[in-house]
């Protein structure tokens, strides 16, 4: 029982430590929707339609939106290496590709 309580406490600390990052992510997602509705940025689907065909040899892991930079970051993995493609949300132009 003592170990169970210690494990639960440790898990709680881990979850609470991640709470600010999760809150920021949810805030950025809401901001992306707001900007898209206002016509200021392209939708994630439009961005993915442009970028995914150029990354056929990599597995797509998912997106993130940075409301400050107004950019999407698409995450991929190829041969065990994680790669990012940063895309200007307003224009759909690739800003940077990590290799």
Task: Characterize the structure shown.
- With 99 residues, the chain is an alpha+beta fold.
- Helices cover 44% and strands 28% of the residues.
- The chain has helices at 2-37, 44-51; strands at 59-66, 71-78, 81-88, 94-97.
- The chain has a four-stranded antiparallel β-sheet.
- Strand 3 and strand 4 form a beta hairpin.
- The longest helix is centred in the first third of the chain and has 36 residues, at 2-37.
The quaternary organization reads as single chain
Roughly how much helix do the residues carry, as a percent range? Answer: 40-55%
Gross geometry:
elongated
Number of DSSP strands? 4
Rg from alpha-carbon coordinates: 17 Å
Helix- and strand-based class? alpha+beta
- Stretches with pLDDT under 50, minimum 5 residues: 3-11
Main β-sheet description: 4 strands, antiparallel
Task: Trace the largest sheet across and list its strands.
Answer: 1-2-3-4
Strand residue content? 25-35%
Mean pLDDT, nearest integer? 80
Order of helices and strands: HHEEEE
- SS element count, helices: 2
* End-to-end separation: 48 Å
Outline:
This protein is 44% helix and 28% strand. The chain has helices spanning 2-37, 44-51; strands at residues 59-66, 71-78, 81-88, 94-97.
